[in-house]
Amino acid sequence: MSSSALMTIGMRAMFADYASMQTTGHNIANANTPGYSRQTVNLATSGGQFSGAGFFGKGVDVSSVQRASNKFLTMQAQAANSMASMDDARASQLVQLQNVFPTGETGMGAAMGDFLNSFVDLATDPNDGSARQVILSDATEVARRFADAGAQLDALQTGVNGDLKSSVDQVNSLAKQIAQINEQIAGFKGLGQPPNDLLDQRDDLVRQIGSFVKVTTMPAEDGSLGVFIAGGQRLVLGNSAQQLAVTQDPADASRSAISISDNGILRPLSPDLLVGGSISGLLKFQNEDLVDARNQLGQQAAAFAWRVNQVQSFGLDMGSPPGAGDPIFATGSPQAIPNAHNARDATGAFASSVSITVTDGTQLQASDYSLAADPANPGSYIVTRQSDGVQFSMAPDASNPGQYQYTRLSDGAALGNSMDGMQLSVTGTPTSTDSFLLQPVGRAAAGMTRVLDDPNGIAAASPVTGTMGAANTGTATIGQLDVVSNAYDPNTDTNITFGANGTYTYQLVDYNGNVTGTGSGTWTAGQPISINGYELSLNGVPASGDTIAVTHTAHPESNNGNAQAMVALRDETLVGRTQRLDGTIGDGETVTDAYATSLADVGVRVQSAQTSAKISAAASTQADGALSSQTGVNLDEEAAKLIQFQQGYQAAAKVLQVAQSIFDTMLQTLAR
Question: Fewer Cβ atoms within 10 Å of its own Cβ: the N or the C terminal residue of the chain?
Fold first, then answer.
């Protein structure tokens, strides 16, 4: 064995140790670089040289530089990071939503209560101009708070749209970078060695995309990596990257949707398939939390305004002559939005449309609805309440052209010619694929205003006055007399005569003394007598032969009947009433209770979202830690390796020095 072989062994050993030190130094330098994976030099024994005495080793070879990686832990960390980003994005938005529903005296519930309480002073003195002015001032405050809250919800929607566009731009940029790195990696495929730093960069880019939208990956034979989203839609394939875009939701142009460009054609991505990343969290907030908050707020505004205006219309104002009260409030109109894909006529306009008429604001529900043709019954429609999935059949009313009869499909309840406090009208003939988004209360709060400006226009007086007969012998007195229905006829008086055991008969008499109607009934303690659109409540017990005359109010300026009816709205469950199976109307909530329910709902959502965000963040941290323990750089370990390879390098240098000395001795010997 020659001295040159020993020199070769020393040189190879020095190169191997130097390569190991270089790689170790690279690890130390990138210990804090995001996405960097620890690299290791793989060494292999050089093939031995045969001689008569056996095989003599030829040293060591550097076979490759390998990075530490774990596909399972990488995939797990990416998934955990996507969920954490989704939960954090939604929680951040919900915190802002909570500010739309202030508590205490600054909330909408307090404003509505103050408005109704202001009628107490007017009931004390119906002719008090200052009390009337206070009522109008409080009405302005109610409308302002609802409108401001509606504007804040619109601002949140605008913010979501902006955040989605920013996120999509970043995803598109990252996807292009992955495609470029894929091309570089594929170009190095023939070299037989992995480009470790490029692989790290690509993994980090995939992780960044995962923070916006959950991804799945698939490696290709050329070393490139396919990136897929939304259940298999390709985002990156080889050196080609598809582009995401923020588009208008076809069901509601005010909302955003996510689409992907496929050969220049934008194809919408279902939010249900985007199950991770901040984009998914923003869409969930937009499509669920924001919609529910807007509908809850709108339901309260619509029910309150409708009922106040109704009671106002039952009373008499201080005009000359006195007349029925004009509306105090106006709210945003119900919306029926055609889907962007609905059929259009030759002019480009939609071939069919839907309109909504509110019949009873107290029965409006805090929900959007969808309307589509009933495939089993041509000319009929299926209406779905989106908050709970309850469906209604909407069939043409044969006796009233243009109107419909509604049936609740869940229990078969026949609801008559209205459903949930509204009637729908269809113009044109929707196709089987047409659909409409119905928002009966979605814009009510944002469009709420006070429309009554004249203090004398407040209808404090009841149009009817009850008088007990002078010869009555019972203990009955009039407790409350309120007009409760638009069926009230102001040109008709009522004469009631009681018989034995609370039975009574009545006559309806016009102003000329003509009897226009008669009837009978039985009075029950605690229950009002309902005649001619009003309700008469009694205190005490009437005796046989007692009479009551209900006549039109002669002096409205001193009557407080309708002001008292306004005060009574404080305790009336007028928000969210429902129609039972037997046709009766179930109670809803008072205005203050309804607002408290909204506060609780938003609070629960915030708390739940923050808890989910904390849990998913902890899971992401744990997954990152597990991955880092396998692929990250441990500075103590690298420092120990650096000393080890330094000593190996010094030992290899000593071998080379010995080989050089032997070679020199041989040259000197041969020279003699």
Answer: C
